[in-house]
Design goal:
InterPro entries: LRR_dom_sf. By secondary structure, the protein is α/β, with parallel strands linked by helices. It has a domain of 138 residues. The chain is built from 13 helices and 13 strands. Strands 1-2-3-4-5-6-7-8-9-10-11-13-12 form a 13-stranded mixed sheet.
């Protein structure tokens, strides 16, 4: 059998199927089952016959009383590997075969449709729209596409999974009114992650949303989305904004960011990456004095090169970070050593610090003296020291036990 780490190309399909039926090889083959199932849709091109064979393997195991299907937690469907319409139809049929088993642990479905979809063709959402859907356990949907990807396929799939969907991740899609209509059916949606998406009005938000993440490699203003989040999502716990460092205008204006942070009183994690507008004014108004940052547990300002750190957190009261557990300043090439020293000194729950390259020397910051150990790439974690008894304490305990023993002997 192939050695770990597992390489899909090193596993002949016939060998794997035979290994599962062989007593001496079973223990070796069983851990690879999930990875082999991924090969059904992801990894490299299969013939139509091989696709059917892999899809039928979990079915045969269920008939034999084995639990192979119930070990599946994630299925990756990569339609870019379909060379023609025949492969596309076979892949969709294989997906339907696997889902018909209703794998108990299957919660994550990743679909890559960043390619032309044959027309006419079986619709992608067909397995989920029967009177009794094949698999109602999918809670996380990840879609990869292009701006030319058929919107109806994406929107209908979101709509079909909407009753149980909690997490939605979209990459390279252009959203339209049909997308917002489908999202309106997702009453349990808690997390939305958008990477390089376009829209006609604003980015999608949901009232019960807890996590919002947006990433874009071109200039884009999302003030409208920030305003909606401020009003509709007061329970938001995590906000991530990743933008291009060479943008000419801010992704979110300072005024809207202040309003957003003030209203979202439950926010625990703030991640802003590659934003040149994160400077000392931003630090003052959004994280220290202007907005009370005492609730924040994680602050990540990676790649914000205009941050210097002339304003620092306080030890107590407004302007302090009493709950802060992690602080990432990776790529913040202008931040001062004094800012880091102060943050480490006044944040009692701080467990992790990620330093920019120019501050990663032990002599400048002195993190080791404050109980931190360096792992890699400027990442420092607080070292948990096991309590040890001093020699005097050991002697005192031994003396006390000896006296206790003598007293017991005298009483006898």
């Amino acid at each position: 059998m192939p050695s770990n780490p597992f390489n899909p190309h090193s596993l002949p399909l016939d060998l794997f199927v035979s290994a599962l039926a062989c007593t001496s090889w079973y223990k070796e083959a069983r851990p690879l089952l999930g990875e082999c199932t991924d090969l059904l849709f992801h990894g490299f091109r299969h013939s139509i016959q091989e696709t059917r064979c892999i899809a039928e393997l979990p079915t045969e195991s269920r008939h034999s009383g084995l639990d192979y299907p119930d070990q599946m937690e994630r299925i990756v469907v990569d339609f870019t590997r379909c060379a023609n319409e025949g492969n596309y139809v076979a892949t969709l049929a294989a997906l339907e075969t696997v889902l018909s088993l209703c794998p108990a642990k299957l919660t994550n479905l990743l679909v890559n449709i960043s390619c032309p979809i044959p027309t006419p063709s079986p619709v992608l959402y067909r397995p989920f729209t029967r009177p009794q859907p094949l698999c109602s356990s999918v809670k996380c949907l990840e879609l990869f596409g292009t701006e030319d990807t058929g919107k109806n396929h994406m929107n209908d799939l979101i709509s079909a999974l909407s009753p149980h969907l909690e997490t939605l991740k979209l990459t390279k899609f252009t959203l339209n009114s049909g997308t917002y209509h489908a999202l309106g059916k997702c009453t349990s949606l808690r997390e939305i992650e958008l990477n390089n998406v376009g829209d006609e009005e604003r980015l999608p938000t949901e009232p019960e949303q807890r996590h919002f993440a947006y990433s874009c490699n071109r200039q884009r203003n999302i003030d409208a989305t920030a305003s909606v989040l401020t009003v509709l999502c007061p329970q938001l716990e995590s906000f991530t904004l990743v933008t291009s460092a060479d943008s000419l205008s801010p992704a979110v204006t300072l005024y809207n960011m202040i309003a957003f942070l003030k209203r979202c009183s439950g926010l625990k994690r703030l991640r802003i990456v590659g934003n040149k507008d994160v400077n000392d004014w931003f630090m003052f108004w959004c994280l220290l004095r202007g907005v009370d940052g005492q609730r924040l547990e994680h602050i990540d300002l990676e790649g914000c090169t205009n941050l210097v750190g002339s304003v620092v957190p306080k030890r107590k009261g407004k302007g302090s970070w009493p709950k802060l557990r992690s602080l990432s300043l990776q790529g913040c090439d202008g931040v001062s050593a004094w800012f880091v020293k102060r943050a480490v000194r006044v944040c009692p729950k701080l467990e992790e610090v990620v330093l920019p390259r120019h501050l990663n020397g032990e002599g400048e910051i002195g993190l080791a003296k404050r109980g931190f150990g360096c792992e890699q790439n400027g990442r420092w974690r607080r070292v948990k020291v096991k309590p040890t008894l001093k020699k005097d304490s050991v002697r005192a305990i031994a003396s006390w036990m000896l006296k206790l023993k003598n007293v017991s002997s005298n009483e006898r």
